[in-house]
Design brief:
This protein is mainly alpha-helical. The chain contains eight helices and no strands.
Length: about 170
């Protein structure tokens, strides 16, 4: 799934660089349906178009998230509570606790556990550097669709770092 979304992000950059059209719309629909974080592509592109004062085009391309939103609603109606409900029910103090710094405890021999802890910290440093690079590109570059998408994913990563722990394999580096 992550490789698919990465390919769709590359397709988003390519199609948006060439002016958009139906191919960009299709890429954004597929990104939204592939993974929940794919919804950041149409959201960031709509913000980019609003920044350019292209309201009609922003509204049209924002509809690319509708199939995923309808699908999520369909699934939610037939399954148990979702993560967003659990997050909304959490006390506000939970959002100021950087749970990402609570490293996993590995029940392995010393050198192996130490190596895994070192790699965990290396991963966090790499994430922080990627976030800083995205912010820098927005501040220093021409504010294009790629910069808006990078900023959207950076904002999402900040939220992930607040609500996630190292015990969840579906967070962090993704």
């Amino acid at each position: 799934i992550d490789a698919t979304l990465a390919a769709l992000v590359a397709g988003f950059v390519l199609c948006a660089s060439r002016g958009g059209g139906w191919k960009l719309y299709l890429v954004m629909v597929c990104a939204c349906l592939t993974r929940e974080t794919g919804i950041l592509l149409p959201a960031s592109y709509a913000l980019f178009l609003l920044y350019q004062r292209r309201l009609v085009r922003a509204c049209l391309l924002a509809t690319s998230a509708l199939p995923a939103l309808l699908w999520s609603r369909y699934v939610a109606a037939r399954t148990g509570p979702d993560l967003l409900g659990a997050i909304a029910a959490a006390p506000l103090s939970e959002f100021f606790d950087l749970r990402v710094l609570r490293m996993a405890k590995y029940n392995l021999p010393g050198p192996v556990a130490w190596t895994l802890h070192a790699l965990d910290w290396l991963m966090l440093v790499a994430i922080m550097l990627a976030m800083l690079l995205a912010i820098r590109s927005v501040l220093k570059s021409t504010r294009d669709h790629v910069a808006f998408a990078a900023l959207a994913y950076t904002g999402f990563m900040v939220l992930t770092m607040v609500i996630a722990t190292m015990h969840d394999p579906f967070t962090h580096a993704r």
